[in-house]
Amino acid sequence: xxxxxxxxxxxxxxxxxxxxxxxxxxxxxxxxxxxxxxxxxxxxxxxxxxxxxxxxxxxxxxxxxxxxxxxxxxxxxxxxxxxxxxxxxxxxxxxxxxxxxxxxxxxxxxxxxxxxxxxxxxxxxxxxxxxxxxxxxxxxxxxxxxxxxxxxxxxxxxxxxxxxxxxxxxxxxxxxxxxxxxxxxxxxxxxxxxxxxxx
Amino acid sequence: xxxxxxxxxxxxxxxxxxxxxxxxxxxxxxxxxxxxxxxxxxxxxxxxxxxxxxxxxxxxxxxxxxxxxxxxxxxxxxxxxxxxxxxxxxxxxxxxxxxxxxxxxxxxxxxxxxxxxxxxxxxxxxxxxxxxxxxxxxxxxxxxxxxxxxxxxxxxxxxxxxxxxxxxxxxxxxxxxxxxxxxxxxxxxxxxxxxxxxx
Lengths: 199, 199
Description:
The first copy, chain A, is an alpha+beta fold and 199 residues long. Chain A has one domain. The first copy, chain A, has helices spanning 50-57, 97-102, 112-123, 191-196, and strands spanning 2-7, 12-17, 22-27, 34-40, 67-69, 75-82, 136-138, 149-155, 159-164, 183-188. In chain A, the strands form two sheets. A six-stranded antiparallel β-sheet of chain A has the order 1-10-3-8-6-5. In chain A, strand 5 (67-69) and strand 6 (75-82) form a beta hairpin. Chain A is globular. The first copy, chain A, starts with a strand and ends with a helix. In chain A, 49% of the residues are buried. The model of chain A is unreliable at 142-146 and 194-199 (pLDDT under 50). Chain A binds chain B through residues 45-46, 49-52, 54-55, 60, 71-74, 91-93, 96, 98-99, 102, 130-132, 134, and chain B through 45-46, 49-52, 54-55, 60, 71-74, 91-93, 96, 98-99, 102, 130-132, 134.
């Protein structure tokens, strides 16, 4: 069974993906950064860790074929496909209220940190991401194009993947137009489970 | 008032440093990596964040003059001096039991993650570092030399600094001899407080 949904610009959502299932993130407009978190559904105190992933890969960025690990160095996601041409950042934290204050914004600005906490709360999973860990910034530093680049992530355990479509519009993180855009997300069960629930 | 103490090889200790005070880490044998954590004493849920520090500095490594920030992008430590010639890593996580298992070690091996938790527990501060955040790896990637390179850190708020002398002896992180060594640590109060407590 496959479900396709739209992640609206400036928002964040938590997606449940069972072991072996996949989640495809389609960069519909080609310029949207998607900060990506994942926590193990059964052990939500453990989640995707960029520092441990860098150490395991011996690289600063990730690419198709890589297994991404949690803070126990245990594989949690597999990058099954990557049709994008560029770099997925592992170094930069999520945007947060302080970042927008520093950029001169008075008052509220949507931000990935708050969106992450809200999405986790709505998913019913205990929110143990305090502070929010450094995410995998899908499509960050990628040249703007409009091909609908996508990344296919495979769950190596039962996970909750939290995806915000980054609302950053004060610096050109989300393309030169500084315009947060919608992103398409497609979740597919593991092959074994497809048989149980034919689409 | 200044206090000098030795951080024994393979162990970790938490040091209290009040705002404006300094902590000098002296790489006595020139080859020892010191994973460095710091948490705000009044708000121990917030601590030094390598991801936020990289974003604020726009660099992957730190150098003298830099202000290092916590997960709220708030300055927490200042690198007041750095007599070492090299790189202080911001990218790699602390060693942990899994790391040594992966290197083929059967049974217990001292590790910085456990040493960090133990040191925080002994300091009486609530241990909110779960999982242990990526530390500032002082002297990591620095060529071996025996000059007693040192780094002087100034507390920008009241902090607890946690320092393990990394026990990694299965790969040449701590010099080509793979020999964890003692490290000297010197803590000095802020100038204003020196007047109150003359040495």
